[in-house]
Amino acid sequence: MMTPFIAEFIGTSLLLLLGAGVVANVSLKKTYGEDQTPLLLITIAWGFAVFVGAYVTGQFSGAHLNPAVTIGLAIIGKFSWSLVPTYLLAQLLGATFGSWLCYLLYIDHYRETEDEDTIRGTFCTAPAIRNYKNNFFSEALGTFVLVFGIFFIASPNIVIDGAVTQNFGIGSLESLPVAILVWVIGMGLGGTTGYAINPARDFGPRLMYQLLPRKNKRADWAYSWIPVFGPFTGAVVAGLIYNVLMA
């Protein structure tokens, strides 16, 4: 039953459950993680969240867990374009579901927390300084580093119908270096926008936040296009440069 679609759904759900979970843990009221060192803890936890999601699902789908990674691999000819819509849908649904599970886990602490910006921050990203041009560049550059790095890590290990295909992805051996890559991006490049570097990671949870039964919700849809199109742009540029360099 573990199809690539289900694997991407499960992997992205785990990614968001653990990743959003650490943000909720250090941000919400009356948690054991409240007032901890947010930046260090968050960047480490997001890296480990990628490791868990990729390790669990890598052999079944290649553990893209990110529409930008899927698009990037398709651009350089290491992933079938025919599978792209399936993967993107699974990633979006998984990210939405994972953020909902995180909300259920911390629901008492969400009720204790009044600041709506803090609440939204446990679901999706926001800029430290709102400057759409620079925010876009930040997301594009961070994703470029992620996707370009993954090009040299991914291998043809996806099993479809019992056979290993030429569709590239991340297996168990590759999950740790990718996790380290995400970690260092967060530490080095995440201070401007919170490093979404994943359209599904931001849009799905932002949509879930919009659906919550809370008053005074501010989903900030005016900013929401940045963590979607910024990462896609970074992935496309990474693919084009890779094709030129490796031609």
Please describe what this structure looks like:
The chain has 247 residues and is mostly helical. Helices cover 66% and strands 2% of the residues. It is built from ten helices and two strands. It has helices spanning 4-27, 38-61, 67-75, 84-105, 107-112, 116-121, 132-151, 172-189, 199-211, 226-245; strands at residues 159-160, 163-164. It has a two-stranded antiparallel ribbon. Helix 3 packs parallel to helix 10 and helix 7 (132-151) crosses helix 10 (226-245). The mean pLDDT is 93.
Summarize the structure.
Helices cover 66% and strands 2% of the residues. It has 247 residues and is an all-alpha fold.
**Biggest sheet descriptor:** 2 strands, antiparallel
Helix/strand order, N-terminal first: HHHHHHHEEHHH
Q: Helix share of residues?
A: 55-70%
Corresponding CATH architecture: Up-down Bundle
Trace the largest sheet across and list its strands. 1-2
> Distance between the terminal alpha carbons, to the nearest Å?
38 Å
**What is the domain total for the residues?**
1
Name the CATH homologous superfamily: Glycerol uptake facilitator protein
What fraction strand? under 5%
Number of E-type strands: 2
The CATH class turns out to be Mainly Alpha
